[in-house]
Amino acid sequence: MIIDFIQQIFNGLVVGSIYTLIALGLTTIFGILGIAHFAHGSVAMFGGYLAFFLISTLGIGLLPSFILAMACGALLGVVLERVAYYPVRNAPPINSFIIALGLTLIIEKTNLLAFGVDQVIIPTPFNRVFSVGGVTMPELRVYVLLTAAVLVVGMTLLIQRTWIGMAVRAVAQNRSTAALMGINVNSVSMFVFALSSALGVAAGVLIGALFAVAPGVSEGLVVKGFAVLILGGLGSIPGAIVGGMVLGVTEAFAAAFISSGYKDVISFLLMIAVLLVRPEGLMRGKTR
Amino acid sequence: MWKASAVACLVAAAIVFPLIVTVNYFLHLAILALIFVMVAQGANIIQGYTGYVSIAQGAFMGIGAYSSALLSMRLGLPVWASMAIAPIITAVAAVIAGYPSLRVKGHYFAIVTLAMNMVVFIVLVNWISLTKGEPGLPSIPSPEPINLGFVELAFEKRRPYYYLTLVMLLAVMAIVTLIVRSRIGQALQAIRQNEVFAEAAGIACWKYKLFAFVFSASLAGLAGALYAHYMGFINPTPFSADASLNAILAVILGGSGTLTGPLVGGALTVLLPEMLRVAEVYRLIAYGLILILVVIFLPRGLVPAVADLAARLRGNKPGKDVA
After folding, report:
1. Which residues in chain B have Cβ-Cβ distances shorter than 8 Å to A112?
2. A114 touches chain B (CB under 8 A)
3. Are A55 and A213 in contact (CB under 8 A)?
4. Which among A4, A7, B233, B316 is least surrounded, fewest beta carbons within 10 Å?
5. What is the pLDDT averaged over residues A143-153?
6. Does the structure show a pLDDT above 90 at A155?
7. How far is A2 from chain B (nearest CA, A)?
8. Chain A CB contacts of B107 below 8 Å
9. Neighboring chain A residues of B53 at a CB cutoff of 8 Å
10. B319 in contact with A at a CB cutoff of 8 Å?
11. Could you tell me the sign of the dihedral formed by the alpha carbons of A207, A211, A217, A222, in that order?
12. Residue ranges of the alpha helices (H) in chain B?
């Protein structure tokens, strides 16, 4: 029983770390621009497909493909910000949401056109299975968890310790004051979109390696990302990390001990409950 | 005067339409468009007038569709009765969903309602003993025929069903117009503009918000019932979050917070993807592009933009109050 318990915590943390990657992008974009970037899930799926293409068709190695895909993701992010979101930066938030929906359609269907309708699994050479005290830990899952952890720590350091990170935090706190202090608000927006989309792509690649990249995955993924945001508090980076883990573990427990068909229902109910009891999120107060 | 004649023309055109157009496929699309306009009009109440973006219209449509279908099939109720009860069941579901979720605002509200939509969808897929899950419910009965003396309306045929939907939609439009022009409508718009001020002015905002949410849901429920008995078959697919997003698009596209906007927007969201079918694979991409362009260049929606243009052509200043 206790082994089962630990096993599910491990499984939950692996999936949760991917949710965290998605949520980190969403939360920074939300913090800076107040945009619910609904197309983030399809950006992630684009990344998964791209990495698959680079690895299987062009025969590039796993790590270079991963990095290349993230770079392309960053570029895509900048394009999205410039072309689609920038023109509506002063309009009501619902407009940028509609833009996000339009983008979702476009990216999703472009994925279909470019990469086909079949689901693809990114091939990895990691087939070993570790067993630690009865808990099964497939090598791949361990690496997914580690990769996600490295990216999350890297992102946090970038935001907390560097000059550009300080600019991002300043814009999140007060856009106009930041502009008055000589921060180029536009470059910050582009930077945030580049960074977030790169992380989203990373999540997409990890999902592709762990489960599969397929049409229709992105919507569920982005909603999970938003669920994490709600759990952790909109705009909060520590919140996204804690929220992602909580969501992943809850789901794993729900799937293992209650019903796998209703696991998403349970995680959404958790989110709704948190929202009603603590609308500011679990981690508010430690934000930014 | 100008406005009244425009409305009369529109209604006349809608009445004549199935007499002129005999291609079954177009009639089918027209019925779907009318049904979806109803959903859009509901979304307009909560989103356009009250300013709360709910992403749950699809779920409420599904609740309406499944309740009506199951009432008529499992309990053997007359279809008319189940179609009348379905919006009530939807309304009850909306009270349960809306009472807690309306305590939060803005993006939070949008995301909670989106999650609710996904919950309803998952339940529809997984509660197989009731809904038969993914494969869906087949052979849902059509409404019982009505004998008008000179003609019998058999609703398993397309043309009578078109008129049924049209009559329902006209009734809905009348009710919505009355609500919007009443004190309730004023209160809703006050909430949209500034909820804190509205509260300070003595409006019990939560009552009005709950009313708007429940009313919009029951319209979606009615539309769902109409859909179920028209198609004769339902599965969970058309009631996913996509349907809710389409309803939001319809409101934005047509012009949010206007009475005629959802008519145009609702019809367009059904017809546009069909019209773009020439280039099958590219049509959804084109659809996405059109959306983005409309939001960037016509942020208030098509109807206010066209009304402004018409006003300018007649030499008036463009007005903001388009009904």
Report:
1. 281
2. no
3. no
4. B316
5. 95
6. yes
7. 29
8. 30, 36, 93, 234
9. 94, 97
10. no
11. negative
12. 2-20, 24-43, 57-74, 79-101, 106-126, 128-131, 158-181, 183-193, 195-200, 205-231, 241-254, 261-275, 283-297, 302-313
Strand-pairing partners, residue A136, are A131
**3 state DSSP class of A120:** strand
Domain membership flag for residue A175:
yes
The DSSP output letter for B259 is: S
Kindly give the residue spans of alpha helices, DSSP state H, lying in A55-180: 62-80, 93-115, 139-161, 163-173, 175-180
> Higher confidence at residue B207 or residue B277?
B207
Residue A104 near chain B (CB below 8 Å): yes
Specify which of A85-89, A191-195, B143-147, B262-266 reaches the highest per-range mean pLDDT.
A191-195
The whole-angstrom separation of Cα A112 and Cα B276 is: 17
- For chain B, say whether A262 makes contact (Cβ under 8 Å): yes
Residue with structure tokens 């078109």? B162
Residue of chain B whose alpha carbon sits nearest to that of A216:
B242
- Whether A260 maps to a domain, the answer reads no
Q: What is the C-alpha separation between B223 and B27, in angstroms, rounded? A: 17
Q: Which of A263, A94, A64, A181 is nearest to B119 (CA)?
A: A263
| Residue contacts between A and B (CB atoms, under 8 Å) | 125
Contact A102 B100 (CB under 8 A): no
Sort A62 into a burial class: Cβ within 10 Å, 0-12 / 13-18 / 19+. middle
pLDDT, one tens digit per residue, over A214-226 is 887 888 888 889 8
**Mean pLDDT for all residues in chain B:** 88
Number of domains in chain A: 1
Indicate the DSSP class of residue A235. T
Among the ranges given (A192-206, A262-276, B117-131), the one the predictor scored with the smallest mean pLDDT: A262-276
Q: Which range marks the domain in which residue A163 is found?
A: 20-216
Per DSSP, the three-state class of B218 is: helix
Question: Closest Cα of chain A to B57: distance in Å?
Answer: 16
Instruction: Tell whether B101 lies on the interface with A, counting CB pairs under 8 A.
Output: yes
Structure tokens at A179: 């502009």
Q: What percent of chain B is predicted at pLDDT more than 70?
A: 96
Prediction ipTM score: 0.78
| Domain presence at residue A79 | yes
Q: Is A234 on the interface with B (CB under 8 A)?
A: yes
Question: pLDDT tens digits for B263-322?
Answer: 999 998 888 878 776 666 677 787 788 888 888 888 888 888 888 888 888 776 555 454
Q: How far is A69 from chain B (nearest CA, A)?
A: 22
- In chain B, residues 278-307 whose CB comes closer than 8 Å to chain A: 281-282, 284-285, 287-292, 295-296, 299
A235: in domain: no
CATH 1.20.272 assigned to domain B2-313? The reply is: no
> How far A108 CA lies from chain B's nearest CA (Å)?
8
Query: Measured between alpha carbons, how far is B28 from B26 in angstroms, rounded to an integer?
Result: 5
